[in-house]
Amino acid sequence: IGAAKLVVVVAIFLLTFYVISQVFEIKMDANLGHIFARSALDAAARSTKPPRYKCGISKACPEKHFAFKMASGAANVVGPKICVEDNVLMSGVKNNVGRGINVALVNGKTGESLDTKFFDMWGGDVAPFIEFLKSIQDGTIVLMGTYDDGATKLNEEARKLIGELGSTYITNLGFRDNWVFCGGKGIKTKSPFEQHIKNNKDTNKYEGWPEVVEMEGCIPQKQD
């Protein structure tokens, strides 16, 4: 009788073990299936994710054009940002921006950065800015963005020199207006790349300052 009971116990144990192992394997298969399904979905999501273009612009630039994106400062808190060909030339993170007009110069043939400077047009002197503008070489791409106030110290000569770079709105740039501009030395026409928002207490986004202005586009490469 004892031997018979032992056989029954062993049989039950083996049966139980078999059932548990079958269930475990099924669960394992289900988990593996879930993992593979998720991998497939992730791969599909990656393949349908929209491509990223240089400087994060909305579409790719044609051949022989340089991609750019820029933004003015936000009030007197966040500095402007200028990016060309996926290179951030000026930003608060790079710690090379300041109150006034921020300027980045780019080689019109290669798209390489030549210089970055900012000129305080509230508490500074316009004379160094004028000398800088006069020193820009023909064929240079010029990108400008305001931060805090970019107009108080601007005089007629400085505005005229910026106008010769292709700016339309520089004559109307006023106290704490937000403005971004991309032009060039030796340009024969007015630049299509310019945005301007007036400082107006009735429409300002921030107390005392208008909203940030942003702009992106494709600058034609200078041809010989």
Which structural class should the secondary elements be placed in?
A: alpha+beta
The main β sheet shows up as:
5 strands, antiparallel
Q: In the residues, how many domains can be counted?
A: 2
Proportion in helices = 25-40%
Alpha carbon gyration radius: 31 Å
Strand content: 25-35%
Could you give the distance between the termini?
Answer: 106 Å
Name the poorly predicted regions.
Answer: none
DSSP summary: helix tally: 3
Which series of helices and strands comes N to C? Answer: HEEEEEHEHEEE
**Outline:** elongated
Say how many strands there are. 9
User: What number is the mean pLDDT?
Assistant: 86
What report would you give on this structure?
It is a single chain. With 224 residues, the protein is of the alpha+beta class. It folds into two domains: 1-45; 54-220, no CATH class. It contains three helices and nine strands, in the order αβββββαβαβββ. It has helices at 2-48, 126-135, 156-163; strands at 65-71, 81-84, 87-90, 100-107, 113-119, 140-147, 178-184, 193-197, 214-220. The strands form two sheets. It has a five-stranded antiparallel sheet, covered by helices on one side. Strands 3-2-1-9 form a four-stranded antiparallel sheet, with no helix packed on it. Strand 2 (81-84) and strand 3 form a beta hairpin. Helix 2 runs parallel beside helix 3 (156-163). The longest helix is centred in the first third of the chain and has 47 residues, at 2-48. The protein is elongated, with a radius of gyration of 31 Å. The termini are far apart. The mean pLDDT is 86.
